[in-house]
Design goal:
The chain is α+β, with helices and mostly antiparallel strands and about 290 residues long. It has a single domain (about 15-275), classed as q2cbj1_9rhob like domain (Jelly Rolls). Helices cover about 20% and strands about 20% of the residues. The chain contains 6 helices and 13 strands. The chain is globular and about 55 Å long. The structure holds 2-oxoglutaric acid and fe (ii) ion (FE2). 2-oxoglutaric acid (AKG) binds near residues 126, 227 and 229.
Length: about 290
């Protein structure tokens, strides 16, 4: 397999890393280029606790093996370890800024474990608004126009460690893919010209920006931004998590019944945090719409 240890942090000719008191500048970068990094959002002490909460919510029995990956959808439902973020005001302040209101409801959340030797994540956008068809839970939930990714790579993001990469300027409407590539029919991914349609998972792409972050840095990207992840080539397990919010007034009519873990969450989250669960949809990954 290719070795990604030589990849250096790029100099893009514009600034894309910002402090927590530079959110206007951060937002300008997000609008101009489709991504930004907010440095030092979480102190080490919270990062360490979140690592445990990612394990507890994603692989409680410790069954993952070398080479494997697992995503816990609706990670917020896994318990108090994840709720701690909702108590941390600097974190909530950033989300209020990103969504433009303090009437926030938890929209989606996830935690991911990528073991040593795990595979890359192919290029994709999380956004499902290219088509009106509603075939799965992503089609229901991933239609908003607010920033999509808001990740913490708790063990750091870097190419050798399964780090995130984005394609700069890929967030604009009508983007036609990197030079030399064709969009897939559903516009959710792209592949090299001349090949059969598939989700490309290579890292030799014009405009690719490998992201280098520490555990407490927040990676933000726009709803359409195309992104992927390198394979994890280090001995260390990669851990990441994210909680995203939407404006509470943006109601979503869900076609699924809230699963038991969602019901448990709604009942057990402390009263002072219930302001963030008004209109919470949970998720049923197995739900399928009519073809
Ligand atoms: O694991 C990663 O680094 C990327 C995950 C991702 O893009 C996703 O879950 O949509
Ligand atoms: Fe994604």
């Amino acid at each position: 397999m290719a070795d990604y240890s030589h990849i250096k942090k790029p100099d893009l000719g514009y600034r894309y890393e910002f402090a927590t008191d530079e959110l206007d500048a951060m937002s300008e970068c997000l609008e101009a280029h489709g991504f930004a990094i907010i440095k030092d959002v979480l102190p080490d002490e919270i990062v360490e606790k979140l690592k445990q909460a990612v394990y507890d919510g994603t692989d409680p029995d410790g069954t993952l093996e070398r080479g494997q990956s697992r995503t816990r959808h609706a990670w917020i439902e896994s318990g108090p370890g994840a709720w701690e973020l909702l108590e941390y005001e600097p974190f909530m302040d950033i989300h209020q800024y990103l969504i433009g209101t303090d009437d926030l409801t938890v929209h989606r959340s996830a935690a991911i474990i990528r073991m040593s030797g795990s595979q890359p994540v192919g290029w994709h956008t999380d956004w499902c608004g290219f088509s009106n068809r509603v075939l799965n839970s992503g089609d229901v939930l991933n239609r908003g126009l607010w920033p999509s990714g808001k990740w913490f790579y708790l063990t750091g993001s870097r190419p050798v460690h399964g780090g995130l990469c984005v394609i700069e300027d890929s967030h604009v409407e009508g983007w036609e893919g990197p030079e030399g590539f064709k969009m897939t029919a559903d516009r959710r991914s792209f592949y090299p010209e001349g090949e059969e349609e598939h989700r490309y998972a290579g890292f030799d792409i014009p405009g690719l920006v490998p992201l280098f972050t520490n555990g407490g840095d927040m990676i933000v990207f726009a709803h359409r931004t195309y992104h992927g992840a390198f394979p994890n080539q280090l001995d260390e397990t990669r851990l990441s998590c994210a909680i995203g919010f939407r404006d509470r007034n943006h109601r979503i009519d869900i076609p699924w019944k809230i699963p038991e873990s969602g019901q448990w969450f709604l009942k057990n989250i402390p009263d002072h945090l219930k302001r963030y669960t008004d209109g919470y949809t949970s998720i049923d990954i197995g739900w399928r719409g009519a073809q």
